[in-house]
């Protein structure tokens, strides 16, 4: 039987990559996030993780749910959104066709249309590439990337998260589930973008709600958080409708989840959005 051995909500902001450039003014500001992503990778390796399932809010789909089921993910990525931050970033990671198809099948059993694709030219988006750059740099574990559809419902994302957990439990894998996306996601308008925007929040209301969410997580008040999640996703400009967070908590067991939330870096703003890295501990 398979096992979920690590679960986390993580940032994928492109300024992480920018901070690695020589002389970058962002190096100190992004170092805690970089360090905590690497720590999650260390923990994953230590726990014998064989596959990362990444709920990617930067792989946005207008038409339904999609999973990258390629046996190998290989390419050179330049962000169409921020080529000045991510350009020619090479990645070469093993995939997990079997688990990807199993997730799609279990979702289908629940009445959700999900397609697992084996298309060599289907690359990864940076919501998967950036976390894996730090967590899985040597490709020690396989990777399954799951898209976030724009025109869907809260309940459908929950169904896919639950299907993911059923597929994991029926597999032979030791899996890390990663929700890759921001907390609040109101970005600065173009006229305000620039170095100052990289480290500032665009909405004080959003910041206050983000901080409250982190308090609820750390107090294990997950039922209250889940009950506010539909409004949180809407009113705080949730990235990809916060589908990654919905799917993560569904995979954890929704109201039944009671594990500890370990915040691994301070909450930080990026281009107006709110970011953090948090591990949600699961029973061994």
UniProtKB/TrEMBL annotation:
Signal peptide: none
Top-level taxon of the source organism: Bacteria
A Pfam family hit: LigB
Keywords: Dioxygenase, Oxidoreductase
GO MF term list: 3,4-dihydroxyphenylacetate 2,3-dioxygenase activity; ferrous iron binding
Domain Extradiol ring-cleavage dioxygenase class III enzyme subunit B: residue ranges: 7-280
Protein's recorded name: 3,4-dihydroxyphenylacetate 2,3-dioxygenase
Lineage: Bacteria, Pseudomonadati, Pseudomonadota, Alphaproteobacteria, Hyphomicrobiales
